[in-house]
Write a structure and sequence with these properties.
The complex is a heterohexamer of chains A (about 180), B (about 190), C (about 200), D (about 230), E (about 325) and F (about 500). Chain D is mostly helical. Chain D has 9 helices and 2 strands, in the order H-H-H-H-H-H-H-E-H-E-H. In chain E, about 65% of the residues lie in helices and about 0% in strands. Classes of the chains: A mainly alpha (about 180), B mainly alpha (about 190), C alpha+beta (about 200), D mainly alpha (about 230), E mainly alpha (about 325), F alpha/beta (about 500). Bound molecules: flavin mononucleotide (3 copies), riboflavin, iron/sulfur cluster (4 copies) and FE2/S2 (inorganic) cluster. One flavin mononucleotide sits at the interface of chains C and E.
């Protein structure tokens, strides 16, 4: 009994000291992960994931609070990328957070705009130009299509339009599925 | 000489730890999604397993046996293992930051890889000597690594396959492991004794 | 750092203490169960009513090529001091299909078999494993046989012109077992008296 | 986190987050000893006991341990619990202990235990920790027994063979023979069978889940059907 | 795929010639089971059925499985084996083209370890047993287990040459005495087996000529197998039989040209194919010579299937314009 | 002559189908009522219109200016009036409309004034390149890459100028006929190119299934007493005309992956390009016409036509005795690399070498899963593993496809041609490449968005801080004001 205890105190003390060192160092690992995750998110900043922007969502994933299938703009590709990074199995997009939509941009019907600047305040990427009492316009290539500017507009002069397709932005589609793939 | 060769063949192929002895399955399932990661894990495990096999032998031989503390074996071994893992961790971190990048995340996982404790316990159960313990540990690790890497390569191919929805993910992975162990039955009887 | 070390040591002490305590509590019982386990195996072949000595106490170790490479423990049954039977464990049948087969063989003083049991083997499941008592009663057929039943040349499997059945598709395993039993009978015949003569002292 | 409702704990442990079928942890004992119902039950109960105790203790001491030594202390606690249990089993269920062999001490490294201690017990109240331990244990025990039953039935055509190892001589005749002169489908009791069997169990669970999912979807009549593929 | 079946036919005929009509019965049974289970699985998975039933892969699987079963194997053996091959080894992975393991061999090995007794009950060549079972009799044996009157199982059955060789060597005899002792041996390999293998060899060469398969795998396989055999034979001809025996007994040729070459489960890069074939050959020899099972082809193929993705990964050809 | 030839990996022997369109002599295509001239007929930036609707233009007059370095101008291929500048159907796999200039021809064929430079040897290369650029000449053999760029050795010593006369794809014979009928022009063009490049050697690579063209070239060389241009016959095997393949066959050198021929001291031009260069430099004529092969089961009288750029395809089909309505599907280019044109009203452009017509679209057999037979890998001239590329592209694992060197695929179509499972492999590769490019773009866009978002957050934080500061200040002032008054009360 006594010998047992002595022997063990010795072992455990050594063990504790060694571990003491190492355990502290593990802490640092956390943060780069958030960056890695954030780098995979589409940065639409739409908040559909239930967090105020992409980075918060990234932090939530890293913290194990959020699942990886909550970002509709990211779509299937986004989820797979996250699964790869985190070594999990991919899963279908969680319908609670919305569905995958074709990419769209906001267009302000300028004659109607009363220059209330509400949309400017809403836009997460400052993609709307304009000053008080002057009509506003959307910088198309900066707009991420987050739709946050739609709601605030008092005169409903903002609508979302699909990004224009032309011969240069066109790309080959995947061939129809191999034989027998129903639907 | 041949005796030691036989020990290796027996632990790597005939009594493969993962497929025949059912040890170290969690990392086997968990860290086999990507080839690179599986290789990192294989490397780390091989090192730790061999080292801890030896250390636990020493502890058992020169601490527990003399003091008649066999009943504390499990506790002692897990302590040893955890210590070895941490030790490896530090050494790697000090010597080669690059290798640390690769192995860093896996090392802690190894503590709860029952292959490691399994080897230690089996060494005692089958009364292996020092060298035998070392070889046994190494062989076990080699077997584990071999299977892990092959499995990872297979899985990378399977994710692209048109697997029925119900079987996607772990299910088909287990079926695959099953077929692997089916193939490994071919080695039975290779070592008589 | 020291604090953590100390704290851990504390936990270690506490833990060890508890375990050690449990150990003390269970030690006796464990020893008892181990005895019982072994005894029950022996009693299957040498029923308690046929002897009055403690089989586990009255044992010795012998090494003989007939009985296999390693040392074999011999438990001796006596009644009123007179030898009744001896149980050999483990007798090794070296040439099984996929490795050695471990046997427990009990032989009465008169040279008849009190029984044979397989206590370990690696034969092919479904082919070689009918030698287990659980799988078939093949092994039980040895009980009561002796060197003159059947005659020595008959101590073979039927396929080799002997008296013992083989299993369909598997001759090697039974062949190996029969051979081992036959050998140990011979050994017993040759060394019977010295086996029982040797004082019960050793083995304790 | 610390205010997980008991209902959720139960559901998680038994189904939603079942250690064996969902988290895929603690596989080694699961596959190794599930070749008969009795063995499975034996190890399952041992695991259950360990989980409950370790979770409880961990949650009790969670305020005493500094973060650095959290892990080692937990490991130590678990190791002690397991050893104690092992000694007890050796004393009172000797044969079973012999059969289960090194897989009892191996409960120490059963990943699920340390995992629960880490992510749950160390962050919540004793009651919940205990409940979680019990439920997780129950979850894996059920999985074990299910797999054990599957393999024993297919392999030998029996159930609960030699139950006396566990329940004493009274249980000698509990053995249920499903099929007389059954050929014996050896695959089931050999290692490959273990893997494939578990794979099938998981698949079955997935099917059930997706059925439930679809049912819900229709109930709520979402425009798009979630998870219903292939 | 149909051309694979054409290439099999000469061998099959020889098979029937030496071992009676049981083989034919097995093949028919296996084919029907294969097609049915394929259709069922496709229906369950919601895939189009017709194209996949017509692609001929299921029959090939069935043929190769049936050819590796004992000629009088009871019907339920063939049934479970084929079903396992198609359902577990093939369809669970997504069917044609997706399965990493050779379905036929997976089925065979499953049977071998699950029902070793039935799987080692081989029929003796008719020239040995002197009994010629016609189609009806064979079918009756297979489905009801009832042998024609006046026949006992022991009379018609015998271990396969490889098996017998193992047994005799196990008894400490030399390869030579073994070959004299047992009637099942022929001049090259096993009695009858040499013809069967020879004809499979022909079929295989025809497939290479027709570009159904490439030469890499068969060459590497047979090459490594005979090299191993030669080395050990020269080293100790008493304990190790000659390369010719290895090439012309068991499933050597069937394996080399029809089984190891399954494109889906083998390596796909040229160098990979060579490694793969060599691996199969070596493993086959190792298992035949030192392992517990008389023939190693099936296990060797499965083991190499396991390694195929890794080999492919490391044997990519140098792409045009790369260093 | 027997010069040492090398061999490129893979490749196929395809039925040529060339005789059909070489029986009849080349004839000028009828002048169409309107010419439709797309602004984007080349690799690089779209040209920029310099004419307005209603404006009268002469033949050869520049109507759209090159925009930037990699670009080419567009010229009026006949005289007439500009009646529209806007989107019209163009030959493109998307079947979309694109910006074009439409000219209503007046049939007068009035040339704008031409500045021939008969003696190019006196010109310095950069000036020649400028002429060629101004003439709107782009590669007529394939990608339509502005030729003047390829004529710029970038300070590197050019070991060999290779003329691609292989014309390896079935059905296409425009280069063949050009060589038979205008060998001299080609030779002159080659010498101009060579002068611009200071190329040490000069080789014309021609497949050995064109004896007449080969003879014509030799004859022309003889007449012009030129001995330093070598004409080499290469074995007929698709895609021997592929730039990289031809270079390997003739020189044994491999163009490095994602490198350019110039990096190994070689420049490769098509023979038609050479002819165009001759007309541009020595006659001062910009690129306004080219030979086009009209062939395939859809046309009764398959032949080659000398076509003004911008001529609607339907007119050419009619001229070859086909009723455009009866033609079920129309491919621009060959059967291997061509793409279907959705409307026969689309015009002929600089890269239109062939119109392949079919009466009824061949019913493609259903694609079965890949059985990894490796036939594709044997056929691949780039020594890729098409089955692996397909496996990953199909599973949308594009990064893996990239690891298997997707971007070394020249989309020659050999793999798809031999695939026993009839998998449209090339489509998968084009799809995968497109996806990868889009993801690159989206990634960049996302990074910008992230910056802007973070910038905004910072700005808001700052504003908030300032507001609070002001607030606090106000408070302080208020406090300062109130305090004295209270004292005063007492
Ligand atoms: C896979 C396999 C496993 C076998 N396992 C055994 C076994 O465990 N025991 C045995 O006696 N024979 C076993 N055999 C059968 C032997 O090879 C041999 O055929 C059998 O003993 C019959 O021998 P006989 O020809 O002398 O009757 C096995 C055969 C195979 C193919
Ligand atoms: C995007 C792109 C950029 C190119 N840049 C150059 C260049 O800078 N210099 C050059 O000599 N050729 C350049 N080339 C021309 C290629 O070398 C090649 O001749 C051209 O793509 C036509 O060959 P193809 O029809 O086989 O594609 C370029 C081609 C492409 C597609
Ligand atoms: C598969 C393939 C086949 C080709 N075949 C020919 C050909 O037969 N004749 C030809 O002139 N160019 C052919 N090309 C285009 C050449 O690669 C190259 O672009 C062209 O010769 C460069 O000359 P250019 O810039 O004057 O067009 C082919 C390209 C590819 C990718
Ligand atoms: C040359 C060749 C060999 C084949 N060999 C096998 C075989 O050994 N086993 C099998 O199940 N199928 C075989 N098949 C059929 C088919 O490829 C196989 O079932 C696939 O694995 C199904 O995905 C073969 C097919 C070909 C063309
Ligand atoms: S849903 Fe996706 S894009 Fe939108 S904020 Fe969340 S992470 Fe960003
Ligand atoms: S303009 Fe509207 S839609 Fe576009 S980014 Fe700003 S808020 Fe979002
Ligand atoms: S040719 Fe077709 S089937 Fe064969 S490997 Fe290539 S893609 Fe697969
Ligand atoms: S298309 Fe690409 S992959 Fe296919 S053969 Fe041509 S180069 Fe190779
Ligand atoms: S239980 Fe997790 S590794 Fe064995």
């Amino acid at each position: 009994m006594l010998s047992a205890i002595i022997a063990f105190t010795a072992l455990a003390a050594v063990f504790g000291l060694i571990l003491g060192f190492a355990a502290i160092r593990f802490k640092v690992e956390g943060d780069p992960l958030v960056d890695k995750i954030d780098a995979l998110l589409p940065q639409t900043q739409c908040g559909q994931c239930g967090y105020p922007g992409c980075r918060p969502y990234a932090t939530a994933i890293a913290g194990g609070e959020a699942d990886i299938n909550q970002c509709p703009p990211g779509g299937e590709a986004g989820i797979i990328a996250l699964a790869d990074l985190l070594g999990r199995d991919p899963k279908p997009l969680n319908a609670m957070h919305g569905v995958v939509k074709p990419k769209r941009v906001a267009i302000i019907d300028e004659p109607l705009c009363i220059g209330c600047t509400l949309c400017i305040q809403a836009c997460p990427v400052d993609a709307i130009l304009g000053a008080p009492k002057q009509m506003h316009t959307v910088i198309e290539q900066e707009c991420t299509g987050c739709e946050l500017c739609i709601a605030p507009c008092p005169v409903d002069c903002i609508r979302m339009a699909p990004v224009r397709q032309d011969i240069r932005s066109w790309k080959w589609q995947a061939p129809m599925q191999a034989a027998g793939r129903r639907g | 000489m041949t005796e030691y060769a036989l020990i290796l063949v027996s632990t790597v192929l005939v009594n493969n730890f993962v497929l025949v002895k059912f040890l170290g399955l969690c990392p086997f399932m968990g860290v086999s999604r990507k080839l690179e990661t599986s290789m990192g894990m294989a490397l780390a495990t091989t090192f730790v397993l061999t080292l801890s096999s030896v250390c636990s032998y020493l502890v058992n031989e020169y601490l527990l046996q003399p003091l008649g503390l066999e009943y504390l074996r499990t506790i002692a071994f897990i302590v040893v293992i955890a210590a070895v893992v941490q030790f490896t961790e530090m050494v790697v971190h000090k010597t080669s930051p690059l290798l640390y990048q690769v192995l860093g995340i896996y090392l802690p996982l190894i503590t709860t890889n029952c292959a490691v404790l399994g080897v230690a316990l089996l060494n005692v159960q089958e009364q292996h000597g020092f060298l035998h313990s070392a070889l046994f540990g190494f062989g076990a690790a080699a077997g584990f690594s071999l299977i892990l890497i092959l499995f990872a390569a297979l899985r990378e191919r399977i994710v692209a396959a048109d697997v029925p929805a119900a079987f996607r993910g772990p299910a088909i992975a287990l079926v695959t492991a099953g077929l692997m162990s089916l193939s490994f039955m071919g080695f039975t009887g290779l070592i008589k004794a | 750092m020291l604090r953590t070390g100390a704290a851990l040591a504390l936990f270690a002490v506490a833990g060890t203490a508890i375990v050690a305590y449990t150990f003390d509590q269970t030690r006796a019982r464990i020893a008892e169960s181990e005895r019982a386990a072994l005894l029950s195996k022996l009693h299957a072949l040498l029923p308690p009513d046929q002897h009055d000595n403690d089989l586990l106490q009255d044992a010795l170790e012998v090494t003989a090529p007939e009985l296999g490479p390693r040392a074999v423990k011999v438990h001796r049954a006596r009644k009123g001091g007179l030898p009744v039977a001896a149980a050999f464990t483990p007798v090794i049948a070296p040439d099984g299909y996929s490795g050695p087969i471990k046997l427990l063989i009990a032989i009465r003083y008169d040279g008849t078999l009190a029984g044979v049991r397989v206590i370990g083997h690696r034969e092919t499941p479904g082919l070689g494993d009918p030698i287990e008592e659980a799988r078939s009663d093949w092994i039980l057929k040895f009980t009561g046989r002796s060197l003159d039943n059947p005659q020595p040349p008959q101590w073979k499997v039927k396929k080799d012109g002997g008296a013992f059945d083989q299993f369909t598709g598997a001759t090697i395993t039974p062949r190996a077992v029969v051979k081992a039993v036959y050998n140990s009978l011979n050994y017993f015949a040759a060394h019977r008296d010295e086996l029982f003569a040797q004082g019960a002292a050793d083995g304790r | 986190m610390s205010i997980t409702p008991y209902k959720k704990i139960v559901h998680d442990g038994l189904w939603a987050n079942n250690p064996a079928l969902v988290q895929i942890l603690g596989l080694c004992p699961l596959l190794a000893v599930s070749n008969s119902v009795v063995n499975a039950l034996g190890l399952g109960l041992a695991t259950l006991l360990t989980l409950t105790l370790s979770n409880t203790i961990v949650s009790l001491i969670r305020d005493l341990v500094t973060p650095e030594i959290r892990l080692p202390v937990f490991v130590l606690v678990i190791a002690c619990v397991v050893t104690a249990i092992e000694l007890a089993m050796n004393a009172y269920l000797h044969e079973l202990h012999v059969i289960l062999g090194i897989f009892i001490p191996l409960i120490v490294t059963n990943c699920i235990i340390i995992a629960r201690a880490e992510v749950f017990a160390s962050k919540t109240t004793v009651g919940r920790a205990c409940a979680d331990g019990f439920m997780m244990g129950l979850g894996s025990t059920l999985a074990l027994v299910l797999l054990g039953a599957l393999r024993e039935a297919l392999g030998h055509g029996t159930l609960l063979a030699n139950a006396h190892l566990m329940f004493g001589a009274a249980a000698k005749d509990w053995t249920i023979t499903l099929m007389e002169h059954y050929h014996g489908f050896l695959l089931a009791i050999l290692p490959p069978g273990a893997f494939i069997g578990l794979g099938l169990l998981i698949a079955v669970k997935n099917v059930i889940d997706s059925r439930i999912e679809r049912y819900r979807a229709q109930a709520v009549s979402l425009p798009h059907e979630a998870g219903a593929k292939a | 795929m149909l051309r694979v079946i054409y290439a099999l036919i000469p061998g099959v005929i020889a098979y029937v010639w030496f071992f009676g009509w049981g083989v034919a019965v097995n093949i028919i049974l296996a084919c029907s089971v294969a097609l049915v289970s394929e259709a069922v699985m496709l229906a369950v998975r919601g895939r189009a059925i017709k194209p996949f039933l017509l692609d001929g892969s299921a029959p090939v699987t069935a043929f190769l499985l049936a050819l590796s079963l004992p000629p009088l194997a009871p019907w339920w053996i063939t049934l479970t084996g084929t079903a396992f091959a198609i359902v577990v080894a093939k369809q669970l992975y997504g069917g044609l083209g997706h399965n990493p393991f050779n379905p036929a061999m997976a089925g065979y090995v499953m049977l071998l370890i699950s029902f070793p007794r039935e799987m080692t009950q081989w029929l003796a060549p008719e020239t040995v047993s002197g009994h010629a079972l016609n189609f009806i009799e064979a079918a009756r044996v297979i489905f009801s287990g009832a042998l024609p009157p006046g026949l006992t199982l022991d009379a018609v059955s015998a271990a396969t040459p490889l098996d017998a060789l193992k047994t005799h060597l196990h008894l400490g005899e030399t390869a030579e005495t073994a070959r004299r002792a047992s009637p099942v041996f022929g001049s090259l390999g096993g009695l009858g087996w040499e013809w069967i293998n020879g004809l499979f060899l022909l079929g295989g060469l025809w497939m290479i000529y027709k570009k159904v398969i490439t030469w890499h795998i068969p060459l590497a396989l047979l090459g490594s197998l005979s090299t191993m055999a030669l080395i050990f034979h020269l080293f100790n001809s008493a304990a190790y039989v000659s390369p010719l025996f290895h090439l012309f007994s068991g499933a050597a040729m069937l394996g080399a040209f029809f089984i190891a070459t399954d494109p889906v489960t083998a390596c796909t890069t040229p160098r990979g194919k060579l490694c793969y074939g060599a691996g199969v050959g070596v493993l086959t020899y190792v298992i035949r010579t030192w392992g517990g099972y008389p023939d190693g082809i099936a296990f060797a193929v499965l083991l190499m299937n396991m390694a195929a993705p890794l080999i492919d990964h490391y044997t990519q050809p140098r792409v045009f314009g790369h260093k | 002559m027997s010069t040492k030839l090398w061999r490129f990996p893979g490749g196929l022997h395809l039925p040529g189908h060339k005789a059909e369109s070489t029986q009849r002599p080349v004839e000028r295509a009828r002048l169409p009522g309107r010419l439709i001239l797309p602004l984007h007929q080349h690799i690089g930036a779209e040209a920029n219109p310099v004419v307005t609707v209603g404006e009268r233009v002469r033949k050869g007059q520049m109507i759209a200016r090159a925009e930037g370095y990699v670009s080419a101008p567009v010229h009026a291929s006949s005289s007439g009036t500009v009646i529209a500048v806007g989107d019209f159907p163009v030959p493109h796999p998307s079947g979309m409309n694109a910006p074009c200039i439409v000219i209503e021809t007046d049939g007068l064929e009035q040339w704008c004034e031409r500045r021939p430079a008969p003696d190019y040897t006196t010109q310095d290369p950069s000036h020649l390149r400028n002429l060629i650029r101004e003439a709107g000449i782009v590669g007529l053999g394939g990608a339509g890459f502005p030729s003047y760029i390829k004529l710029n050795p970038l300070g590197k010593a050019v070991d060999a100028l290779i003329l691609n006369a292989a014309e390896c794809e079935p059905y296409i014979t425009c280069d063949d006929m050009l060589m038979r009928e205008r060998a001299a022009e080609i030779i002159h063009g080659i010498r101009i190119m060579r002068h611009a490049l200071h190329a040490a050697r000069c080789i014309i690579g021609i497949e050995d299934n064109k004896p007449e063209a080969h003879a014509a070239l030799l004859r022309a060389l003889g007449e012009l007493h030129i001995s330093d241009i070598q004409v080499t016959q290469v074995p007929t095997r698709y895609p021997a005309g592929g730039e990289k393949q031809l270079i390997q066959v003739l020189t044994g050198k491999e163009v490095p992956s994602n490198g350019l021929p110039i990096h190994i001291g070689i420049v490769c031009h098509n023979v038609a390009t050479a002819a165009a260069v001759y007309r541009a430099v020595q006659l001062g004529e910009p690129l306004i016409s080219r030979y086009v092969t009209i062939t395939g089961p859809g046309v009764p009288k398959p032949r080659n036509l000398d076509v003004l750029l911008g001529t609607p395809m339907s007119e050419l089909l009619e001229q070859c005795g086909a009723d455009p309505a009866s033609i079920s599907h129309l491919v621009m280019g060959g059967p291997m690399m061509g793409f279907s044109v959705h409307s026969s009203s689309a015009p002929v452009v600089k890269t239109t070498n062939c119109l392949l017509t079919g009466r009824h679209r061949p019913a493609e057999p259903p694609a079965m899963p890949c059985i990894r037979c490796g036939a594709c890998a044997e056929a691949c001239p780039a020594k890729l593993l098409p089955q692996q590329l397909y496996w990953h592209a199909h599973a949308k694992e594009f990064d893996k496809a990239q690891q298997y060197n997707l971007f070394d695929c020249i989309e020659c179509g050999c793999c798809a041609a031999v695939c026993p499972s009839h998998i449209p492999l090339v489509q998968y590769y084009r799809y995968a490449k497109g996806e990868i490019w889009t993801r690159e773009r989206e990634k960049q866009k996302a990074d910008v968005a992230r910056e802007r978002h973070e910038f905004r957050l910072a700005r808001l934080a700052q504003e908030k801080a300032e507001r609070e500061a002001r607030h606090a200040q106000k408070k302080a002032e208020l406090a300062g004001k109130t305090a004295p008054r209270e004292t005063a009360l007492h």
